[in-house]
Amino acid sequence: MATFLNVAQLYEAAGGNTLSIMAQIGPQQRFHPTPCSDWNVQTLMNHIVNGAARCRAVIQGEQHEQGTNDVDADEFGPALEGLVALLKEPGTLDKTVTTRRGETKVADFMTNMLMDVTVHGWDLAKATGQDTTIAAPIVEFLFEVFEPRADAMRESGAFGPKQDVAEDADTQTKLLATLGRKV
């Protein structure tokens, strides 16, 4: 079973990858469609930046007002840095917080957010023609955690319909298909 000992480091790595992808997005690409059918590149970047700011607020027990301006890597960098610094403070991952879904440990909350920043980074890369490779430790961790929960997550609307892939597909392909992404 997966452990949450490294969720802060995994989030930092996944967020850093997503930041790199965002930094390479040109103005002409902001309105490209993404694998998230309801969001284009810009609305997905807004979601990612607001997600990091919301996570930090939740962990600190504060309210977060979602931003309404379009954002990019310039805003995500500081939001990511602040959240990662908070996650690395002793005891933070063991703390219990109240989220929209109830009370949970920060480690569990951040595991969900790790999936979010990872997959949406992949969505941005796919939409803008960048490298879609996700680091193997992140893929392995997320697949181990979310594959057993996938049916329930689909029923809640969090994941799209599972996509068919070959049995011998690599773990990244299986993870993305489990989450409803067409690879």
The N- and C-terminal alpha carbons lie at a distance of 26 Å
**How many strand units?**
2
Query: What's the overall geometry?
Result: globular
What gyration radius follows from the Cα positions, in whole Å? Answer: 16 Å
Query: What is the string of helix and strand elements?
Result: HHHEEHHHH
Number of domains: 1
What can be said about this structure in brief?
It contains 7 helices and 2 strands; from the N terminus they run αααββαααα. It is mainly α and 183 residues long.
Summarize the helices and strands and which ones pair or pack.
Blueprint: H1 7-23, H2 41-59, H3 73-87, E1 96-99, E2 102-105, H4 106-127, H5 136-146, H6 150-156, H7 171-178
Antiparallel strand pairs: 1-2
Helix pairs in contact: 1-3, 1-4, 2-3, 2-4, 5-7
Characteristic key phrases:
single chain, 183 residues, mainly alpha, Four Helix Bundle (Hemerythrin (Met), subunit A), disordered N terminus
